[in-house]
Amino acid sequence: MPTFTLVHLEYLSWAALWTIGLSVIAFIGGGILGFGVAMARIAPSRVLRTAAMVYIQLVQGTPLLILLFLIYFGVAILGFNQVPAILAASLGLTIYASGFLAEIWRGCIQSVPKTQWEAAECLALTRWQRMTRVILPQAIRIATPPTVGFMVQIVKNTSLASVVGFIELAQAGKIINTSIYEPFTIFVIVAIFYFLICFPLSTWSRSLERKLNVSGR
Amino acid sequence: MSAVVRLSDVHKRFGAVTVLNGVSFEVGRGEVAAVIGQSGSGKSTALRCIDALERIEQGTIEVCGHAVHDPKLDRRALRCDVGIVFQSYNLFPHLTAEQNIMLAPTCVKSLSKADARTLARDVLARVGLAEKADHYPEQLSGGQQQRVAIARSLAMQPKLMLFDEVTSALDPQLTGEVLKVMEDLARGGMTMILVTHEMSFARKVASKIIYMHKGTVWETGPGAIIDAPQTLELRKFVGGEM
Question: Which domains does chain A carry?
Answer without folding.
Answer: 6-216 (1.10.3720.10)
